[in-house]
């Protein structure tokens, strides 16, 4: 049995603000919603400090951890928590719970609709992930539904949704064409006409900038079924889910604590998942560095138990350590508005390159970057009308148009 390293709760995060510490303590909530004695003592010690309650609620919402924070503080019943704050938290958490329940019911309706038309579909993130990780739909915030179908069923599935109350998003001047979406993207987005439920209809995981070599056939063959509101839904097997969550978090530079909390909760519930076979599969996928980064962040912020061999492998990779420092610098800045914008886009591309350990994956990413720069948009085609036989010239015109329109900001935002 490999030894496991687990970060203690006490004094691990004492250098962080009291508000962030409360969020991190909330990430240890078990399925039954109770708070253990050690955590209660730690939380009461934090509450003895001067808490900026407005800021706490703001960052809890931003980091998608408000339901966990509400449940945690409800169990503490400390007199230092203003009644108005608890009332506000309960009201917001109730609204999130009702929204989650409505989205879960809509998901079941859509999955039944697809099944009735012989379209195989897997659901992930959203209601399925929330129920799987936390045992209750009320403990995690999600804003849309994610469904994965076979590439050959994509357009048929989309038309089916459009025939049952959904519509395409409003077009914008920079919106890529359907051909470009199918070639370079990974999901089509639709929105319900009345409930405004958002659905991402995926046909592959990731996209040009963060591809994950897990095909629908592989995921379908290895899927697991799980209960959701009395029904049974198909989702990724736990191993595939952990890989995906780490790649998804790396794609977005882990700017939300809720994503890291998901990793920690999954690892804490199934510690045997982190074995040699899992790490060998991760390496074969070319996702070792992204997975190590996610696991290291989960240990650092939420005390996720890691086998010593994995912890040592992560700490010995100087690039993983560097990337974790980049995450740390941006994740806990005073203003949540700064989290999503990880510096100039060119620097973000650099970080994405550093997250790939294999040269062939780095080369593919370089090609994707160059393609995104040179690929003509709908606006480029409208500004200069060329005959179809000369359409290849748009690739030469595109950089000129961008520099004319945006100046040197274009180069800064590559």
Helix content: 55-70%
SS class: alpha+beta
CATH architecture of the domain at 101-236: 2-Layer Sandwich
Largest sheet: 5 strands, mixed
Average pLDDT level: 85
Give the low-pLDDT segments. Answer: 6-11
The fraction of residues assigned to DSSP E strands is 5-15%
Q: Gyration radius, to the nearest Å?
A: 23 Å
Q: State the separation between the terminal residues, measured CA to CA.
A: 47 Å
Overall geometry comes to globular
* Name of the top-level CATH class of the domain at 101-236: Alpha Beta
CATH topology of the domain at 101-236: Beta Polymerase, domain 2
In short:
The protein is of the alpha+beta class and 414 residues long.
What would you say this structure looks like, in words?
Helix content is 56%, strand content 9%. The chain is α+β, with helices and mostly antiparallel strands. It has a domain at 101-236: Beta Polymerase, domain 2 (2-Layer Sandwich). The strands form three sheets. A five-stranded mixed sheet has the order 2-3-6-5-4. Strands 1-9 form a two-stranded antiparallel sheet. Strand 7 and strand 8 form a beta hairpin. Helix 1 packs across helix 4 and helix 13 (288-302) crosses helix 15 (318-331). The longest helix has 34 residues, at 83-116.
């Amino acid at each position: 049995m490999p030894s496991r390293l687990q970060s203690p709760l006490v004094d691990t995060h004492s250098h962080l603000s009291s508000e962030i510490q409360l969020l991190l303590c909330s990430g240890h909530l078990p399925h039954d919603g109770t708070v253990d004695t050690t955590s209660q003592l730690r939380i009461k010690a934090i509450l003895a400090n001067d808490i900026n309650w407005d800021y706490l609620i703001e960052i809890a919402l931003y980091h998608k951890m408000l339901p966990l924070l509400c449940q945690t503080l409800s169990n503490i019943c400390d007199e230092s928590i203003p009644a108005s704050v608890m009332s506000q938290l309960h009201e917001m958490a109730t609204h999130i719970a009702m929204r989650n329940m409505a989205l879960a019911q809509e998901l079941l309706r859509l999955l039944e609709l697809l099944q009735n038309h012989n379209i195989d579909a897997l659901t992930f993130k959203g209601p399925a992930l929330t129920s799987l990780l936390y045992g209750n739909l009320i403990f995690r915030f999600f804003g849309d539904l994610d469904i994965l179908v076979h590439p050959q069923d994509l357009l048929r599935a989309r038309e089916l949704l459009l025939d049952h109350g959904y519509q395409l998003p409003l077009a914008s001047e920079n919106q890529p064409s359907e051909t470009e979406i199918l070639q370079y993207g990974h999901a089509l987005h639709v929105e319900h006409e009345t409930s405004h439920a958002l659905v991402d209809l995926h046909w592959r995981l990731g996209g040009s900038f963060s591809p994950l070599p897990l095909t629908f056939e592989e995921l379908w063959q290895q899927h697991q079924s799980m209960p959701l509101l009395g029904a049974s839904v198909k989702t990724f097997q736990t191993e595939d889910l952990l890989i995906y969550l780490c790649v998804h978090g790396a794609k977005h530079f882990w700017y939300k604590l809720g994503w890291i909390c998901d990793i920690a909760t999954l690892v804490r519930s199934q510690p045997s998942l982190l074995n040699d076979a899992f790490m060998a599969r991760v390496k074969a996928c070319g996702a070792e560095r992204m997975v190590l980064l996610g696991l290291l962040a989960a240990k650092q912020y939420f005390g996720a138990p890691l086998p010593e061999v994995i912890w040592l492998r992560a700490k010995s990779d100087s690039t993983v350590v560097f990337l974790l420092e980049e995450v740390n610098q941006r994740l806990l800045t005073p203003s949540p508005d700064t989290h999503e914008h990880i510096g100039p886009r060119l620097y973000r591309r650099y970080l994405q390159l550093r997250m790939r350990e294999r040269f062939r994956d780095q080369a593919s990413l370089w090609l994707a970057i160059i393609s995104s720069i040179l690929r003509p948009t709908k606006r480029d085609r409208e500004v200069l009308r060329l005959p179809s036989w000369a359409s290849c010239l748009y690739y030469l015109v595109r950089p000129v148009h961008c520099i004319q329109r945006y100046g040197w900001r274009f180069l800064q935002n590559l």
